[in-house]
Every structure is written in C-alpha cells, then in structure tokens.
Amino acid sequence: MYHRKKADRKKKQGKKISFDVFRGIGASILITGFKKEYMKQIALEFCAQSSLPYGKSEAGIHTFLSPEKTPDHRWGVVCSVWVQNNSENEELTSKYLIKYLNERISTSLFPKLDIRVFSWTPNPVDFYNSEKELGDFADGYNVIEDKFDRKCLSIPMTGGDFWIEQKIGIQPGFLGASLFLFFKTVKSAMKLEPKISNFLFKFPNTVQIYGLVASGSKIGAKNIDKKNLIISTNELYCPSLREQVGKESKVPNDVNCITELVLNSFSINYLKTTLSILLDNLEKEKNILNITPISYDEVKDLFDLVTFTLD
Q1: Domain that holds residue 80
Q2: pLDDT tens for the 311 residues of the chain, in order
Q3: The dihedral formed by the CA atoms of 273, 277, 280 and 283, expressed in degrees to the nearest 10
Q4: Is 199 in the same domain as 158?
Q5: Both 75 and 161 in a single domain?
Q6: 147-181 as b/e, with b when 16 or more CB fall inside 10 Å?
Q7: How far apart are CA 59 and CA 79, in angstroms?
Q8: C-alpha span between 140 and 237 (Å, rounded)
Q9: Do 290 and 235 share a structural domain?
Q10: pTM surpassing 0.70?
Q11: Which residues contact 117 (CB under 8 A, 6 or more apart)?
Q12: Domain count, the chain
C-alpha cells in the first residue's frame, strides 16, 4: 500500500510505483456550442452512459476549450470513448468502438440544439465515418461540405442543422491506470471529487473516467457463475464487508469509503507525467488517508496488459 505520509520517503529510497493498463483503442472528439455551461451538461450526458458491470465502452472528459481554441470559435469540450482490445479479433475491437461511439453521439449529441462535433484524436490509424453511421437520418438531404477547414457532414434538422466532421479518428491507447483513494467518510470523498477533476483538466492528453468511481470493482466474480460478468464487488476493499471478509480485508478501521480513480491516454508517457504530478498533489490532501495503485496481475493472462513504473 502506498501511504500518502510515506510517499516522500519512498521516493528518496528510489522505490518505484507500478501501474497496470489495458491495451485498447479510443476516439477523441471536440463538441462545441455557444454556452460554456451547456457544454458541461452535454459532456456529462455523453460520458455518463456507464456500461458497467457487463463492459461495453467507457468515456471521459479531457478538458474544456475557450472559443479562440476551437475550429468554429465557440465553447468546446474534449471527450473520448474507449474499448479494450479483443485479443482474438482486432477488427472486432474497432467495430465495437464505432458501434458504441455511434450510440453515444446518436443519443447524447445528435438530439441537442446547436451542437457541432469535430475529430480531436491526435494520431488516428482508423476512422468512424459519420456519413455512413448517421447520414441515413437526413433521408437523402445530407451533404458533405468544407466547413471550418474540415470536411463535415451536415444533417438538416428542424431545430438547426447538425454538423459533424466526416471522419472521427481512432487510435490505439491505454486504459485503466488506476488508484484506490481511502477516505474516512463518503462526504469527504464527494467534497474532493470536483477538485481532482478540475485539476486533471489541466492535462488534456489524459482523461479521467467516471470521476471518483464508487464501485472499485475487481475483474470477474468469485461467488457466482456468470461468464459474461466483467467486473463485480471488490470485497477486499469494501468497508461494509470488512468484518465478514476478516483478516484478508484491505480496509483499515478508520476508513469507510474507498474510491477508484481511473485514467486513460493514447500515450504511456502522458500517463506517467499526469500520475506523477497527480500523486504529488494527492499527498497534500489531508482527507485522503491512503493511496494505492491497482494491480491486475492476477488476471494478466486474460487481458492484453502493459505494466509501467513511475521513476
């Protein structure tokens, strides 16, 4: 366990902190509109479609952009959608991402007033084709136009045309660099959550998934036979099961809430930078009693995992 009060000592002794991440792919988009507050609402709706516990896609907010930094000079928010690699069929991985990205765009962005969508993936190797996935809605009235120095699909709508870049980039990346944060109370965790999120917005090359996650789940299940259940209750870190689990419990007596903080990125180096600075700041938070990286070593044979260390 990585105790915040022992952090400086560990660094001086040269001990390294290791993280496990899953290989996968992601698509990053810029969503724009006229009001900053509206963009926050839109982004939360886009990212809040949790696929847990059966596992489909996950999404998060990278950062917010001011009008001078967006192609159409309006307020913007950068979000991304991710899926893990299917080790048996890489083509299936891409199909899944396109499917789930399309679901999020169709349900959370397409019906909204005055929204535009642009590709924001840094180094794409594949693409989501908006004309193919969304164009039929226009009933033959859809057009591709050069707009905002990009090729964009325009779909006529009664509340104003919907504009989306024709090709949204897809790129390999890394999912699930995670920390357990230990708190005395749920209230203290909730108080700190927006502060952590706002801090992470300063690192747009990484993305926090789901805020501070309450589930803190483990891979698979031990006590029930459900082959399609991807994650389940992590009894070792569940405060209400401390006495039932007994000596194996990882929950200290003064802890009543353990949250999971999850980061994804297209780059291991960006993850290292963000995590290093984040840990330095989390150590200063008096309400965080313990911090420990989450290891997936027990299931490394089942997933396409990568391990990296912070120097």
Answers
A1: 23-171
A2: 545 444 443 443 456 899 999 999 999 999 999 999 999 999 999 998 666 555 689 999 999 999 999 999 999 999 999 999 876 777 889 999 999 999 999 999 999 999 999 999 999 999 999 999 999 999 999 999 999 999 999 999 999 999 999 999 999 999 999 999 999 999 999 999 999 999 999 999 999 998 899 988 787 777 666 556 677 888 999 999 999 999 999 999 999 999 999 999 999 999 999 999 999 999 999 999 999 999 888 777 778 899 999 97
A3: -100
A4: no
A5: yes
A6: bbeeebbbbeeeeebbbbbbbbbbbbbbbbbbbbb
A7: 7
A8: 54
A9: yes
A10: yes
A11: 29, 30, 31, 32, 105, 109, 130, 163, 164, 165, 168
A12: 2
CB 243 within 8 A of CB 251: no
Compute, in degrees rounded to 10, the torsion defined by CA atoms 21, 62, 39, 168. -80
Handedness of CA 270, 275, 280, 285 (dihedral sign): positive
What CATH number is given to the structural domain containing 287? Answer: 3.30.70.520
Q: Which of 243, 282, 225 is nearest to 259 (CA)?
A: 282
Q: Which of 111, 146, 171 represents a domain boundary (last residue)?
A: 171
Which of 146, 171, 196 is a domain's end point? 171
On the 0-12 / 13-18 / 19+ scale of CB atoms within 10 A, 267 is middle
SS3 114: coil
Do 36 and 52 have their domain in common? yes
* CA separation, residue 255 to residues 80, 210, 236 (Å): 33, 22, 13
Q: In whole angstroms, how far apart are CA 291 and each of 55, 272, 288?
A: 26, 16, 7
* Residue reference for tokens 């006229």: 34
